[in-house]
């Protein structure tokens, strides 16, 4: 059964050998890993850290609960006084006072008395268990206990949920809503997090129109690439994200690239070989050092990566299917590293619902629709030449990074790089 990963380095295709800066997909990923770095570290209250990545280990700052607490509504008593209780010889307790969850001083109980308590209430001195309401029988104003309770029954001991110093999250892990809640409850004051990378998307093309100013005629094509990329960036945890539609002139492109405030810049279009394809030339003139120009994969073979003062610039082709493939294979790994995530987004196993074949040449990045059938993830390659582009993109749930010269059959086990964020990042 074929097993594919993005790290398998294919042999360069002859069409790219004249370009000394063209790299394999594996080499591109190695370069990205070397140059994509987390941003500065900020300290934030845990209640507003959802989606950030921890820059240091997070530990509980107190026991939870801090003191013994009642786990049920009922009556707090001393269990020893009811150790001989039975249905035929119940033991009576006189209610003394009421203790609420917010009560600061729960008081104490005398011999033969019971305190009325509510869930979360502190335990009165002298009590070591709670008789819950559903087990309580009142007779002539007294609580009648017919079953001997156990010491500690229906009580929460200090630290029974979390003890002080418990590791809540390791550095490099994503802060989830449940971790946030645990941090707040265990009185964590501040959390060190990596700043989310700010991003800028430049859609290059004089034929393009602002996607927020769509008109009902054929004046310019609404720029769909920045809409696609900004949504993907937000979905995968990027910081502020802006986009501009830019004319196909060196002056206009240079103006956008000269002083971008973003740490991650993505251009779409202008990566071909014509005199109007200015993306790479403009990037170099703006001071970006080229890390690679061309990747031995299709779609997206004429993409590039530049770096300047810690800002990464991905130059992507213009066709949306190539943008989506380059996003998943190259930009997303960089974004995860820039967010501070330690673990790569690993592929998931799936079963082919339809076979495919890859000829000799570059690696193929094959979009797939995904469906769960009887607890098995089924992947259907969307590689039919006649499939409309936009319909194929809307159905895409992940990609296969297929090396050249391979044939895979229906029922084969393969690996899928998911497009959407996974539950476990």
TrEMBL record:
Return one GO MF term. metal ion binding
Q: Where is the MoaB/Mog domain?
A: 200-337
Question: In the UniProt record, does the keyword GTP-binding occur?
Answer: no
List the GO cellular component terms: cytosol
Among the Pfam families in the record, one is: MoeA_N
Q: Name one GO biological process term.
A: Mo-molybdopterin cofactor biosynthetic process
What does the record give as the reaction this protein catalyses?
A: adenylyl-molybdopterin + molybdate = Mo-molybdopterin + AMP + H(+)
Q: Where are the transmembrane segments?
A: none
> What does the record give as cofactor?
Mg(2+)
Which pathway does it serve? Cofactor biosynthesis; molybdopterin biosynthesis
Sorted alphabetically, which PANTHER family does this protein's record hold? GEPHYRIN, MOLYBDOPTERIN BIOSYNTHESIS PROTEIN
The family annotation for this protein states:
Belongs to the MoeA family.
Q: What's the protein here called?
A: Molybdopterin molybdenumtransferase
Q: What is the lineage of its organism?
A: Bacteria, Pseudomonadati, Thermodesulfobacteriota, Desulfovibrionia, Desulfovibrionales
């Amino acid at each position: 059964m074929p097993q594919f990963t993005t790290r398998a380095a294919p042999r360069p295709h002859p069409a790219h050998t004249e370009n000394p800066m063209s790299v394999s997909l594996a080499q591109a990923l190695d370069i990205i890993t070397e140059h994509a770095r987390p941003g500065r570290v900020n300290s934030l209250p845990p209640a507003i850290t959802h989606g950030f990545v921890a820059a240091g280990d997070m530990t509980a700052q107190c026991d939870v609960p801090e003191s013994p607490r009642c786990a049920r509504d009922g009556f707090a008593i001393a269990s020893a006084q009811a150790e001989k209780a039975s249905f035929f010889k119940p033991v009576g307790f006189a209610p003394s006072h009421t203790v609420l969850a917010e009560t600061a001083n729960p008081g104490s109980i005398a011999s033969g008395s019971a305190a009325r308590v509510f869930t979360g209430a502190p335990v009165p001195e002298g009590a070591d268990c709670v008789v819950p309401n559903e087990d309580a029988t009142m007779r002539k104003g007294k609580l009648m206990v017919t079953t001997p309770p156990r010491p500690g029954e229906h009580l929460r001991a200090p630290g029974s949920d979390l003890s002080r110093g418990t590791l809540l999250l390791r550095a490099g892990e994503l802060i989830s809503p449940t971790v946030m809640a645990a941090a707040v409850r265990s009185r964590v004051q501040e959390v060190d997090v990596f700043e989310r990378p700010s991003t800028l998307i430049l859609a290059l093309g004089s034929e393009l129109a602002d996607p927020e100013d769509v008109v009902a005629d054929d004046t310019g094509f609404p720029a769909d690439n920045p809409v696609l990329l900004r949504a993907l960036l937000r979905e995968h945890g990027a910081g502020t994200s802006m986009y501009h539609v830019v004319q196909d002139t060196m002056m206009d492109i240079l103006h956008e690239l000269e002083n971008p405030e973003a740490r991650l810049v993505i251009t779409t279009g202008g990566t071909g070989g014509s005199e109007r394809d200015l993306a790479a030339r403009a990037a170099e003139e703006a001071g970006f050092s080229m890390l690679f120009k061309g990747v031995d994969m299709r779609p997206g073979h004429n993409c590039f990566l530049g770096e300047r003062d810690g800002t990464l610039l991905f130059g992507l082709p213009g066709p949306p299917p190539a943008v989506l493939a380059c996003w998943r294979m190259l930009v997303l790994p960089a974004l995860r590293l820039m967010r501070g995530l330690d673990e790569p987004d690993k592929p998931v196993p799936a079963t082919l619902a339809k076979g495919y074949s890859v000829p000799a040449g570059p690696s193929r990045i094959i979009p797939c629709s995904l469906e769960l059938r009887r607890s098995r993830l089924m992947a259907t390659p969307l590689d039919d030449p006649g499939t409309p582009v936009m319909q194929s993109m809307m159905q895409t749930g992940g990609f296969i990074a297929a090396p050249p010269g391979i044939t895979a059959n229906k029922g084969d086990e393969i690996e899928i790089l998911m497009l959407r964020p996974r539950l476990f990042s």
